[in-house]
Amino acid sequence: MNRSRLLMIGALALALGALVSVAVYRNLLGRGPSSAESGVNVVIAANDIQVGTRIGEHDVRIVKYPSSALPAVTYGALSKVLGRGVILPISRGEFILPSKLAPENAGAGLPALIPPGMRAVSVRVNEVVSVANFVGPGTRVDVLLTGTPNGSSESQTTTVLQNVAVIAAGHNLERSANGEAQNVPVITLLASPEDAERLTLASSQGKIQLALRNPLDAHQDPVDAASERGLYKNEAPVAAPPRPAVHPAKRVVAPPPPAPSVLSIEVYQGEKKPDVVNFPEQSNRNEDPK
Predict the structure, then answer these.
(1) Whole-structure pTM value
(2) CA–CA gap between residue 129 and residue 7 (Å, rounded)
(3) In terms of Cα–Cα distance, which of 219, 198, 210, 222 is closest to 142?
(4) Computed over its alpha carbons, how large is the radius of gyration of the chain?
């Protein structure tokens, strides 16, 4: 009796487990096709793409991504990106975004890196001027000029431009294969038209020196020009030229007019105290005596 009852309970448990498994399996099958998000085509980088490169077929490929996992604007066809110039570095597997590409028909290389309203100006440098070859694309520098101003007999150094972006080093727009800065004869800076004029004039007036900046430090500090005399602490200060003595004008004060003469007359009336009556002497003289 007990054995039969145990067998019945075991069979009932197996049947109930099988029924639950079938129900769960059908539920998952029914939910899967409707809830699974279909992927969309998106263009990504097949390898690392450096600044100034013109995108070719070997640089990109198409993969499928869920639409909810994509940025706001992406490309779904290779024809939208082939031949476009790269203005920001793109890593392998990264989405090809419009913000990292030059406009259509803008070409590649250095011209595609110049934003509207800006100019690219190159200055000749050496290892010292280029801060031991650490000045490369993407860095920011200050431009210093050392020369002799007109009317001065000593050299001075002044800061011509601050926080200027470097977009190219020589004819190459990237570092070497091992990541080291390349030794190049020129540095190309991105400047406004007004700053381009100042930089060109400074190159012809004296010696140019670049000062490397922290890219996060965009503050421009007012810096006074440094002269040779200010480098030496024991140097006697230059005496200021004598100023002509200024004598204050003397103030002429007119003497006060003389007080008019007064003629006093005492008038007696009985036993009262006499009254004193004053008469100007001038009017007294002008009276006609009778």
Answers:
(1) 0.50
(2) 93
(3) 210
(4) 48
Contact 173, 139 (CB under 8 A): no
**What does each C-alpha distance from 236 to 20, 78, 230 come to in angstroms?**
101, 72, 10
Amino acid at 70: L
| Enclosing H/E stretch for 168 | strand 156-169
CA distances for 136 relative to 119, 198, 210, 248, angstroms:
18, 22, 12, 64
* 39-111 CATH, one of 3.90.110.10, 3.90.850.10, 3.90.1210.10, 2.40.128.10: 3.90.1210.10
Collapsed DSSP state (helix, strand, coil) of residue 80: helix
10-27 average pLDDT score: 82
Place of tokens 């490309």: 75
For the cut 60, the answer to whether the pLDDT of residue 284 exceeds it is no
